[in-house]
Structure formats: C-alpha cells, structure tokens
Amino acid sequence: MTAGHFRETVDLARCTRLLNHGPVTIITSQHEGRTNVMAASWAMPLDFSPPKVVVVIDNNTLTRRLIEASGVFGLQVPGVAFARETLAVGTSNGLELDKFAAFRLQTFRAQQIDVPMLSGCTAWMECKVIPDDSQRYDLILAEVVAAYADRRVYSDNRWHFDDAPGLRTCHYVAGGTFFSTGEPFEVQATRPTVPESSTPQP
Amino acid sequence: MTAGHFRETVDLARCTRLLNHGPVTIITSQHEGRTNVMAASWAMPLDFSPPKVVVVIDNNTLTRRLIEASGVFGLQVPGVAFARETLAVGTSNGLELDKFAAFRLQTFRAQQIDVPMLSGCTAWMECKVIPDDSQRYDLILAEVVAAYADRRVYSDNRWHFDDAPGLRTCHYVAGGTFFSTGEPFEVQATRPTVPESSTPQP
C-alpha cells in the first residue's frame, strides 16, 4: 500500500485528462489467480461521459488473455522515476516470468475491479471492457469506473509536475528512450480573419 | 509549399514512431472540393506493419463526414510554434467557417491521397481508412500510406528537437494548455530478480 495516502480520487467526468497528453501507460490484469503487467504506449481516451479509453493489446499476449477472461484491467500512468520498471515490464513476457515478483513490484487493491493496481505510479484508472468487434485489430475498448492520482502532481483536475519531479509522466519513443512530459504553456487561439462569415465555437 | 525542402520521407516500417510519444495531431480532410482541418489529441498507432493508426473523430463533425466519403485523411504533428493554430482549428467548427482561409493556413499537395496537407507542422502521415464497425465508437482505423517529417527535428528515425525548438511536438491538456515534449532520457530495464525461472525477452 506504498504511498496510498497520496492517492486522491479523480472526478470521473474529468478523468480522461489523466491520459489526454499521451503518456506511456502500464496495464495490470488478473484472472483466476493469474496476474500480469505490461507497458502500453498505445492507450488513449475514447469518450468523456461515461469516460472510456481504448488500448492496443496484441492478441498473442497473456495480458490480452487475462483481460478477455476477466473483462477488467488496471491502467496506470508511471512517472519518470518508474521508467526502468516500465521498460522492464514492457520487454518481458508474462508467459515466461512472474513480472510482479521478478521486478519486485508493489501492488494495492483496486476499488471497483479485481485486479492488482501498481504502487509507485502517478495516476490510475480502473477499467471495464466494452464488448466489441474491434478485437480483431488488437483494440480493447473500456469504460473507466474509478480513477485516482497522486495529489503531489495532480489536484483540482490539473497536473503540476514541478512539485514532485520523479512523478512527472513520460512518453515512450523506442529502444529504452523516453521523453519526459515537458513544460506547460498556454496559448490563445488564432483569431479568424474572416469574422463576417464565421461563428467560432468557444 | 512552405518549407517543403525540409520535408524528408520517413520509412513506413518505422513511421509509427512519429506518433508513439502521444503528441497532439491535426487532421485534414477533403471530399468533392470541400475541405476541413481539426485538432485531435486522441490519435495513436495501431500496428507496425503495415503501419496503422487509430483516431477518435466525433460522428457529428464535418471532418468525419468528409473522411467517410473520401476514405482518406491527412494526419500531421504540429510543433509548439503551431500551437495557437492547433487550438484555433480545434475550437472552431468547419460547418461554420472555412478554417484554412480564416486562420491563413498554408497547405501542400499530398503524395498518395487527395487531401491538403498542412505546412508548418513537424511530421505528416497520409492515411487510408480501413472499413470497420468501430465507427459506432467514433473510432477511425487507417493505414499509413506515406509519411514524412521535418528533417530539422527528425532524421534517421530519431527525434532531435533541440535543433529547432519551434518544431518541438506538444501534448494537449485542456483549456488552451499544452505540454511541450520534454527531454529525452534512456533507461536500462530493471533486471529480474528470479532469473532461474525467467527468460526475459530483448
């Protein structure tokens, strides 16, 4: 239950914001006592209300098998301090290795689903699969049924990574290389130059 | 054809790398002379070979209508210097406004599809829709048929943003706030602690 006291509920109506900037994720799964954990760069929001996500999980993986059997999975957003573990679970095979034990990963109990959630991450979403034909393209669609984040870097529906650098989210490139999430900046939209024919939406 | 001399072909076998780190994207579309351009944070790779992407495009949009009619779209990755335009095309409605004219956007001709591609971005992918039932979830699946990037920040299948800061990709949060793509870092995967029962994959 490491750092459990830093986890704070995120409003489901805004929870896609945890994933909107495209960070790398880690997926946990469990069915009939068998568990697994893998990294996934290919995960994104799909809808706001109810909040949905879509992830790409290869049909040949243990994770896929466990998720299809249980109908649930944990989706977590690791920080830069967790990048080595992210790479480790992303480059090893759950059919050959108990990754939780091998990489000494700590877990805690999910709120709404029966899947171990990974301690030491920055944000977490508990997901229930939406049955869909898209499986043939390795997609899994899911509804988010619980979400929480480490309040040291996420509160009031806003990221503030400067307050805990190790929890800064990251983005996977290839070959063990990541980008950390960079500095925030705010812009005003360019104004249209032909206002007489336009009604831009807010 | 602004900056056309900076655009360099990206090997299709590696082109998902342009999108792997989860940057915000801009989608261009065209059918029977009508064109549109919108921002999309919800875009990601789906497969390596042939390269595929999946994007979320609301069923009520002009972009969706044009893409469904033409079967093709342009997917571009803007840099931070293009964030104002990205927000502008993401918060205005193509049914009410010719966004290309209103925001003075420059385009150039695509190589493989009949869609205007947006000048001033960092990377580009030309996409052909894969017919699929997932449309009911606002998803569009597509194969990438051409890809190129600004060689000032992407060459030899590698990002190097420091060489042209305005072309650094970015990640959308909400309400006009973006993150720039941060610094790259490389890690070695954690070694498993139970090697006797494991064969980690490379």
TrEMBL record, chains A, B:
SMART domains: Flavin_Reduct
Domain Flavin reductase like positions: 17-156
Xref: Gene3D superfamilies: Electron Transport, Fmn-binding Protein, Chain A
Keyword annotations of the record: Flavoprotein
MF term (GO), any: FMN binding
Domain of life: Bacteria
Statement: the UniProt record of this protein carries the keyword Ribosomal protein: no
Family matches, as Pfam families: Flavin_Reduct
Cofactor requirement: FMN
Family, per entry: Belongs to the flavoredoxin family.
PANTHER family noted in UniProt: FLAVOREDOXIN, FLAVOREDOXIN-RELATED-RELATED
Protein name, as recorded: Flavin reductase family protein
Species of provenance: Paraburkholderia dinghuensis
